[in-house]
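Why this split exists: single-chain examples teach little about how molecules sit against one another. For that reason, every record in the complexes split bundles all components of an assembly together and asks for one structure covering all of them. Below is a record exactly as it appears in the raw files.
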Amino acid sequence: MKEVIRLKEVWKIYSRGEENQVIALKDFNLSVKEGDFIAIMGPSGSGKSTGMNLIGSLDVPTKGNIYLGKHNISSLSESDLAEVRGRKIGFIFQQFNLIPNLTARENIMLPMIFQDTELWEREEKADELLKLVELGDRAEHYPNQLSGGQQQRVAIARSLSNNPDVILADEPTGNLDTYTGEVVMKFLNNLNEQGKTIILVTHDPDLAMKHTRKIYWIKDGEIEKITEKVRGKWKNIRKKK
Amino acid sequence: MIEDYFNLALKNLKKRGVRSWLTLLGILIGVAAVVSLVSLGGGLKAAVDSQFNIGSTEVLTVQAGGMNNYGPPGSGASNPLTKEDAGEIGKLSTVEVSIPRNIRNVKLEFNKKVSFTYAGSIPDNQREMDYVYDFVGLETISGKLLESGDRGVIVIGSNLADMDKNGLDKNIKVGDNVAISGKTFRVQGITKKMGSIIMDSTVLMTENDMEDLLDYGNEVDLIVVKAVSKDLINQTAEDINKLMRDRRDVKKGQEDFDVSTPQAMLESVNQIISGIQIFIIIIASISIAVGAIGITNTMTTSVLERRKEIGIMKAIGARNEHIFYLFFIEAGLLGMIGGIIGVLLGTAVGYAGTSALNTFLGVATHPEISFWLILLTMTGSFLIGAVSGLIPALNAAKENPVEGIRG
C-alpha cells in the first residue's frame, strides 16, 4: 500500500523563554497508508492535539521530518503549508467549525475557492457531496439552522471537497449525543470503505476500538503503544521502548 | 478569482451590526459634502453672479467712493461723480458709450401702504436706453419697457409687482398708478424675474423724471461704460482711471473712485465661491479622515472577533493572501457603501439646493452630477476604505491557524 503520511522522529517543543520549555511531542513516528482508518488516542494534554496539528500541516515540527506522500513539508512556509493542506487534508472538527455567514452549500464550496476551482465545478461538487451526506434538501440552510449532527455532516462534505488524500477528524462526535455520533461515524466508515484514508483523533478508547483498525496510544508526548485489529482481535504491535 | 472574495466579503458585511455601519458616517458625510458641493457649484455661481448682476463682459462701471458704502451704489459718496465725468469718459477712444445712471432710495405708495425701495434712472435717449437694456438683460413679462420721451411712467421689477413680496398686500399691474416719493406714476411694464434681489425690486424711470423727482442736479451715482472691445477692456479701465485721477486731482493709489471690470467682479465672485468651497472641503476632509480611522477601528475589532473563522479558513486551505484579500476588500466595500450613500445624499442635496436656488432667484441652473463624479467618488471611497483596512487585513493574514481554531 502507498504511504500517505509519515512522521519521522518528530519533536515539538514549545518554549516560553530559555528556562520554560514544554516538550509536547517526543520522538514521534507514525506511518499512514492509503485506505487506513487509524486513531490517535490519548487523554487531554497527552500531545495528541499537537500531533494532529503536525499531521494536518497546521504546524511545523521543531525537529524531525513530515512527509505528505513524497514531499517533505517540515520546512514549508505558513502560506505554502496552507496550499498543501487545502489540497491533501480534509479537516473535521469537534466544534464543526462551519462559517456562520455561509450556507451549507457555500461552506462546502469554500475550500475549492482557495484552490481556484471554477464556479460551475464548485457547484457541481458541492451538490454531489450534499447528496452523499444526505443533506440535499438543506443546501441553502445556514449553520445555525442545522442540528449538530447535520452541521457535522456538512463539515464531512466540506472536508471532501478538494478530494484530499487524508481525512483528519478531531473528536468528530465530541459535541454530539451517542446516536447522532454513531450516524456521523457511519458516514466516516462508509468513506473508508470507499477507500478514503481516515485519521481519528480522540480520547475515547471505545470509539477508537469500534471504528478504526489501528490505534496509536499517546501519553505524555510519547507513543505508549500501537495496537492493531487482526482478524477481529486487538494486538499490541509495538511496546514502549 | 477575485470576484469570489468580493462575494465572501459582501456576505460578511451583510451580517455586520449597527456599530460597523455607524463608523461609515464619516465617509458618508465627507462624500455627501463633496458631491453636493460639486453638484451645487454651477447653481452657487449663478446665484452669486446674479446678485452681482454680472452680464456683458465688455461693460465697466465707475463709482465714486469705492464699493463699500451702504445704500445704492455710488450714492452717499462725499465727492460724487458728475454728468461731465460721464461725458468725458465717453470721449475716450477705447470707450464705445458712457451712460450716467442714478440709483436712489424712494418711497413707494400703493393700496394705502408704503414700501421703501430703489429707483434707477434710464437714460432718455433711445440709443443709450437700448444699451442699458442690453447690459442688464432687461425684458418685460407684461407691458413694455421705457422708451425715449416717456414721462410719468415707470417699469417695476417682478418682486415689486408680486403681493407676496412687495409688502403692499396687492399685486401691482400694468396700468396701475403708484406714488413714488409723493408723485404719481403709471406702471407701464413689469420686468422678468432676474434673480437679483436688488434688480427685481427696482423702479425704473427716465432720467428726466428721476431728476425732477429727486433733484440731484448734476450728480451721477454710477457710470456704465461699454468698451469698444472686450479684449481691450483692461486698457479701457486704465484710460478711465487716468482720466478720473486727473479730473478729481488724486494720485495713483489714492483713488476715491472705483472702476470695476467684469473680470474684477468675476474674481470677487470666484473668491467668495472658493472660500465656501475650501470651507466645505476642509469639513469633508476631516469627516473622511474620521471615517477612515473608524474603518480601521472596526476592521481591527472584526479581525479579533473572527480569529476563529480565520483559523478555520486557513485550516481548509486559505493562503495568507486569501485572508488578506477578504479583509482588504471588506474594508474597501465598507468605504464604498459609505460613498454610495454619500453620493445619494449629496445628489439629493444638490437637487434640493438647486431647485431652491432656482425658485428663489428665478434662474434655471441644473445640478452638475456627472458619471465621472460618481465613478470617482465610488472608487475613491473604496480606496479610502481599503487603505484604512490595510493594517487589520495584514494582521488577519498573519493569524496563526492553530491559535485561531482554538478560539
